[in-house]
Amino acid sequence: MGEWFSREIAGTGRLRLFCFFVAFIAAFLFIRFSVRMIRRGVRWWPGNVTPGGRHIHHVVFGLVFMCVGGVGGLAVTDASSRWAAASAALFGAGMALVLDEFALVLHLEDVYWTEQGRLSVEVVFVTVALCGLMLLGLRPLGADAFVGQKDAGGGWGVVAVLVIDLGLAVVALLKGKTWTGLIGLFIGIVALVGAIRLARPGSLWARRRYRPGSRKERRALARERRYRRPVQRLAGTVGDWIAGRPSARG
């Protein structure tokens, strides 16, 4: 294991990303465990931080961690040093705390245990997926294949790949396929599949291009009922198990 870590992580310059990734997941799981214990009112777990009666949300601690970790990371010149790893880990932990209350920041009200608060969990899951892809060595838009090409043909090749991959990913996102579009930034074939398939009902693409009552709209609605909703129910179950069930379902 140590040899693999040195070769695949430290040796490839991904030590800081690895520390960020591990700390991000650990901090998210810890804070979700903490808030669930507080929600249950167990006596053996510390409650909310309320100095002077003011409830301090953990997004505040996350911002502090991100500032310290971010500035510390900029100050460290050796990317493979322990200080660089520690700064990346601190930044990852802070980012987890911030994104765990993303819905609160977005709505500027405490929606943590409501259905709106589930947005925070979805953002965290997306972040974990994208960081995991980068940790595996993938890079957005497939530009790595052209690194080091200095001739004009190589330069135009880079531009072509970037434009095509980005365009396909944007189309997938416009069709309401968030996961497909984001992962498609790293894996071009995923973006291609999302771009050529039917849009989700209610997406910007569907509202602009599918006339009410048209064959495409009917097919999109049928596909939503048949495929998308079971996946959403499964994702909701997994989210409830990891993050806790919202107070009320929409």
Automatic annotation (TrEMBL):
Organism, as annotated: Actinomadura verrucosospora
Entry keyword Protein biosynthesis: no
Keywords: Membrane, Transmembrane, Transmembrane helix
Transmembrane segments: 15-35, 55-76, 83-99, 119-141, 153-173, 179-199
Protein name (record): Integral membrane protein
